[in-house]
Amino acid sequence: MARKILRINMADLSHAYEKVPEKWAKWAGRGLTSAIVADEVEPTCHPLGPNNKLVIAPGWVSGTPAAPSSGRTSFGGKSPLTGTIKEANSGGLSSQKIAKLGLAAIILEGTPKNGAWYTLVITKDGVEFESADDVLGKGMYEVDEILWKKYPNKPAVIGIGQVGEEKLSNAGISVNDPENKPGRYAGRGGLGAVMGARGVKAIVVDDTDGPGVEIADMELFKTGRKKLTDAITSHDLTKPNGGLNSFGTNVLMNIINEAGGLPTRNFSAGQFEGASKISGEMVAEMVEKREAGMTGHGCHPGCIIKCSNIYPDADGEELVSCVEYETAWAMGANCGIDDLDYVAMMTRECNDLGLDTIEAGNTVAIAMEGGLIEFGDKEGALGLYDEIRQMTPLGRILGQGVEATAKAFGVHRIPTVKGQSMPAYEPRAIKGIGVTYATSTMGADHTAGYTIAPEIAGVGGKVDPLSNEGKAELSLTFQAATAFVDSTGYCLFIAFPILDIPDGWAGMAESVAGVMGMDITGDDVIPMGKEILKIERNFNIRAGFTSQDDRPPEFMRYEKLPPHDEVWTVKDEVLDEVYAWVNGK
Amino acid sequence: MPTINITLYGDIAAHGGGRHIASLDLELPEGARIEDLFQTIGLNPEDRGYLFINAVLHDMPGLYASREVPLKEGDHVGIFSIRHMWPYQYRDGIRLSDDLKEAMKEHGEMRNTYRDQT
Fold first, then answer.
1. A136 CA: distance to closest CA in chain B (Å)
2. Which of A259, A432, A563 lies at the smallest CB-CB distance from B89?
3. Which residues of B fall within a CB distance of 8 Å from A464?
4. Using CB atoms, which residue from B87, B117, B118 is nearest to A450?
5. Residues A485-535: pLDDT tens digits?
6. What value does the mean pLDDT take over residues A87-109?
7. Are A252 and B85 in contact (CB < 8 Å)?
8. Where are the beta strands (DSSP E) in A471-561?
9. Averaged pLDDT, B19-31
10. Can you tell me the distance from the alpha carbon of A21 to that of A18, in angstroms, rounded to the nearest whole number?
């Protein structure tokens, strides 16, 4: 049975199934959310107004039998934080369940009358518009519990916390994990506020007796699935007891710190003396010492990398799942805080309130720089989340993210691009990521430019990655390849084994080709990825963005970053090269 | 005799008396090199991943470009297990030693690891 679009109108509380039009037929995941947003959302609309839409789409292989680590859901719309097009994706339960209901995408549009709030219940029989009175105003931990008690079959719960209800620009969208905790987030860009603007507190997805995912060529799919699975389970980084499985993404903390690239105290230095205390190695030690929690946790069914963790408190109770690298960095090093328990407590606050942890931690760092509290004041930092919870005037400012808070406190060291704050890699030290931060269609985004099989993608051998030349072509290639992988439904971390094991790459392409009946080889990845980027770039141009927005923050050009006293040296002309091919310039 | 500080990360921390992280100061003979440091702490180079000296990357998993790098008083050496990961896009543009650049040019510049993964 062919996939369908489910269109939900919140103005008249109706829903309809539509055939996927030919122009969208080859897309899934990010490719599809961006195509729909570009076609149906006016780029100059107010992101919180009635003309923005929230689009939710699983990837090509999501919901297929045992496709490894394939549970990513893409969420798309116009971002309240950046004003650009936005795709944020999440692990958790939603992707496979939406796909198994035979849905290519869910489009949420319109605004309920009289400020009403709803919980949408999506099953094989359609959509029920339930009152959200029982969950409104509650944090996501309680919301997930209530909805699993109310609806059988352990459904996916997509939801927003109080921050999304108040439509603040740092609102993320929560997806429950297999233990029904709100630990997986489509965090960046404020799409939780867009969901709030549609009057939807939560979406329950129950795939019981759903039609499943149609696979065009089962033998090709199985061949590809095996190759990819073998690559993932044999590579040092992704195999059982490998790097990611043992220490999670927070395995990066000490490495980036040793390299002098760990943004510290609001991007004022590249090394933090307390880095080891908030690292993935320390998470593993705490789990062992407290004999509680776990590492090697899977964020969605079928994940074979299992890089997540469950962090325990001092009493051996689960405190939060999970402490990722970006989160530990934002709450920790960038705020001068070296206490992992406080990092975990602040992470839990974000998961409950519905905040993106990167933006939230960076916002606290800005408030510290502005003198509200001192760098390193862990109690003070934790207390700021109470301000947000109570929606005090200060809390509302903090809930809007870094730029709003910087303005309120007169701070000029603002580490943002297109309104979104930078993640945990200092661009003055790691210049390649700086090119991606500056030029990505999403604002400063560390997941926009993954290194994926450059030889196969046609870059290897043509560009010297060890020099400063060719950074534009490299960044574009990485961004295009990432856009493709973001459309598959696979976790982006399959990029690690694919880079070193050619069969893994072939397997990924074959599994997608098998599901969709498309003839995909390595030669198609970059062109398809560039199609997605062109859609996104043109939306941003129509929204008013120019090449002047593809720039790192000014302070990085003159403030020297210790330990190597580096400044940003990549020329603007290089940044302009990245997207010069769009519209033939 | 120069004293250097080393930090060992991951399962190789056992060579420094730690579980997942061990940091220690070591006195080495004058003219000691990385190879001598490994012998002193009993670390097999094949068990080693990334290696930093004073915030400059000197080695990658599967390579041994740092073997003959001399150590001096006050140096800090950070050594990671082979299981540690550092995707290319998160190290594109960092400080590399000249020996490592040459080794990467010979074996391929953008790999996550130079150990045989098949």
1. 40
2. A432
3. 109
4. B87
5. 899 999 888 888 877 788 888 888 889 999 999 888 777 888 999 999 999
6. 96
7. yes
8. none
9. 94
10. 8
Instruction: Tell me if A563 and B55 make a contact (CB, 8 A cut-off).
Output: yes
Across chain A, mean pLDDT equals: 93
**In this structure, what token pair is assigned to residue A55?**
């689009």
Contacts made by residues A126-135, CB under 8 angstroms, sequence distance 24+: A126/A15, A127/A6, A127/A8, A127/A15, A129/A13, A132/A200, A132/A201, A132/A202, A135/A159, A135/A201, A135/A202
From the list B104, B112, B115, the residue facing A466 with the nearest CB is: B104
Chain B residues in contact with A260 (beta carbon < 8 A): 55, 94-95
Kindly report, residue by residue over A144-199, the tens digit of the pLDDT.
999 999 998 999 999 999 999 999 999 999 999 999 999 899 999 999 999 999 99
Would you say the ipTM is above 0.90?
Answer: yes
What digits encode the pLDDT tens for the residues A346-398?
A: 999 999 999 999 999 999 999 999 999 999 999 999 999 999 999 999 999 99
Query: What is the value of pTM for the model shown?
Result: 0.95
| Residue ranges covered by each domain of chain B | 3-107
Cβ neighbours of A425 in B, within 8 Å: 90
In angstroms, the CA A368 to CA A380 distance is: 10
Kindly provide the residue ranges of all beta strands, DSSP E only, lying in A116-199, ordered along the sequence.
Answer: 118-123, 126-131, 156-159, 173-175, 184-186
Q: Are the C-beta atoms of residues B82 and B60 closer than 8 Å to each other? A: no
* Interchain pair A254, B80: CB under 8 A: yes
CB contact under 8 A, A500 and B113: yes
Identify the band that residue A462 occupies on the pLDDT scale cut at 50, 70 and 90.
low
* B61 interaction partners in chain A (CB closer than 8 Å): 236
- Chain B residue with Cα closest to A449: B89
**Distance, C-alpha A285 to centroid of its chain:** 27
For residue B102, the chain A residues in CB contact (below 8 A) are none
Q: Which residues contact A206 (CB under 8 A, 6 or more apart)?
A: A97, A121, A122, A123, A151, A152, A153, A155, A156
| Per-residue three-class SS string for A551-580 | CCCCHHHHCCECCCCECCCCCHHHHHHHCC
A positions 260-289 inside 8 Å of B (CB)? 260-261, 270-271, 276, 279, 281-282, 284-285, 288
What residue of A is the nearest CA neighbor of B84? A243
Which pLDDT does position A182 carry in this prediction?
94
Single-letter amino acid, residue B65:
A
Residue A176: which of A149, A148, A151, A210 has the closest Cα? A148
Q: What is the pLDDT of residue A557?
A: 97
Q: What's chain A's length in residues?
A: 585
Topology of the domain covering B3-107: Ubiquitin-like (UB roll) (3.10.20)
Domains and CATH numbers, chain A: 4-205 (3.60.9.10), 248-414 (1.10.569.10), 426-500+521-584 (1.10.599.10)
pLDDT at A311 over 90: yes
Q: Is the pLDDT of residue B118 over 70?
A: no
Token pair 């109770």 is at which residue? Answer: A317
Among A25, A26, A4, CA closest to A15 = A4
Task: Flag whether pLDDT at A454 surpasses 70.
Answer: no
* Residues on B contacting A at a C-beta cutoff of 8 Å: 7, 9-10, 13, 19-21, 23, 50, 52, 54-55, 57, 61, 78, 80, 82-96, 101, 104-105, 108-113, 115, 117-118
